[in-house]
Design brief:
The chain has about 170 residues and is mainly β. Helices cover about 10% and strands about 45% of the residues. The strands form two sheets. It has an eight-stranded antiparallel β-barrel. The radius of gyration is 33 Å and the shape is globular.
Length: about 170
């Protein structure tokens, strides 16, 4: 056998596997590394808080008479709105009189220019449908609030023109 062929068949040098395995285990466990947390995953940052929705132009007490579109039913409504609320939080109350005698809370959903959308949750009485969406459009020049009530199933079901309660 020649010296060249002996050199080509000679095994190359490898570090002992024990030390390499120990190093891999230490790095993988987070005990050795480039700094940072030793926990496997850092917790996510808190979600940014949404700015409050501005209900100030329509804050206060509003009254009117609701007319249902699919049946000849009319009844008084009283809505009270706060000046601001975060989306998903309470922004007011609603009360339906005229034999219905039910009401509940209004939850802020969206504000777009002079249009305000709230969710309605009936909390007392038994004559009202729960989980409706109400769109309110403010006509500042006329001093009115156009009320459009959408059933939980989606269609427009009742309307009213509200004025500020004196």
């Amino acid at each position: 056998m020649s010296a060249a062929s002996a050199a080509s068949t000679r095994p190359s040098y490898h570090p002992p596997h024990g030390r390499l395995l120990t190093l891999i285990m230490l790095v993988g466990s987070g005990l050795v590394g480039c700094g940072g947390s030793t926990s496997p995953v850092d917790p996510p940052p808190p979600p940014p808080s949404s700015p409050p929705l501005d209900f100030a132009p329509v804050a206060g007490d509003w009254v009117g008479t609701v007319s249902e579109l699919r049946q000849p039913l009319v009844y008084p409504v009283n809505i009270t709105l706060l000046s601001e609320a975060s989306a998903g939080s309470r922004v007011g109350t609603v009360y339906y009189a005229g034999g219905l005698d039910c009401g509940g809370t209004l939850t802020a959903r969206a504000v777009n220019d002079n249009s305000y959308e709230v969710g309605e949750t009936i909390t007392y009485g038994s004559g009202c449908v729960n989980n409706a969406i109400i769109q309110l459009t403010h006509d500042a020049a006329a001093g009115t609030l156009d009320y459009r009530w959408y059933s939980p199933l989606g269609p427009l079901s009742a309307t009213a023109v509200l004025t500020r309660k004196e």
